[in-house]
Records
---
Amino acid sequence: MATTQPDSEFTLRLRRTFAAPRAKVFEAWTQKEMLEQWMCRDEKTHDVKYTELDVRPGGRYMMKISAPNGIQYDLGGVFREVKPPEKLVFTWSWKKVPPVEGQPSESGETLLTVEFFERGKETEVVLTHELTPVAGPREAYDKGWKGCFDLLAIALGTTRA
């Protein structure tokens, strides 16, 4: 189970240990086929497709997340640091199409740092998401990332659905 460490109103830090080698966990964050199994699928009805994935400093990623209600989220950013199998730093922003009245239509740019620590035969992942006031409530990101981590564990073959 992922644990949350509240740093501030606009910073989310989660820790979770996966029963998989560090290189395998890192690959799950950097390979399209693996990412599409768990990233942003915390809502079971989401269909996630990566349209771009260039994992290198300055490289971009883009994904489209479709929901059955017709709303699509365009999510993407730029990798700032890539240090296999230790660390990823990348920007994160999303836009909702079409906009929904009374809800934010985009997040603004936020920053994600994901660190991978070898713990014997396991890997501890520390995710730090630096949010902005327009990104939305921290609690929503906390719930979303915990759901993603649950699916990552399944994708790694370390737990069942």
---
Amino acid sequence: MNAADLARHLEHSVLAPQSTEDDVAEGARVALRWQVRSLVVKPAFVAVASRALAGSGVRTVAVVGFPHGGETTETKVTEAREAIAAGADEIDMVINIGALRRRDTGVVFNEIRRVVEAAGRHPVKVIIETAYLTQAEKRLACRLAARAGAAYVKTSTGFGPKGATAADVALMRRIVPRSVGVKASGGIRTYIDALALIRAGADLLGTSQTDAILREAASVAA
């Protein structure tokens, strides 16, 4: 897979706690340079990112309930609405991990459904944070997200104890229907990492190492 093809699978993230508006602007430059699928930012920086990417075809994605998912449903719904009003094209939301682990399926389903409804025509990716879940819990989270209308299920925030693995991606791909995509995120640092996750079934990859990965891809192709 060459750099241009890989770029279409990449979502460049600028999500570090210490990130500034200048970091988001630089992230937008990286996203535009490589024409990746999207730039993922925190809610406070959605307007900045959206303006920088206007007319480029690169999407602006806002995280919601990030990174731990412990906010109330109403807070996540409000975050999603505000992000879309500020220019977000898509929403990446973190589930209520504790509710999932307690098998409070109604809580988890309702929360995802409410955010999907608030997002309207804007796709929602549901981050299940696989590092904290058993295999059974991963399967349950994926099924709930798919039933609640998620466009994608996503492995990780990148702030948990472990990021994306090929095994988790393959599991998620088996569980959700083909109409639901799989996004791998967290710990993706090299071209080899990226290829392994795509081969396992990932449709999208979230990474802050976009420039390095695509430079490596370009050098391999050369």
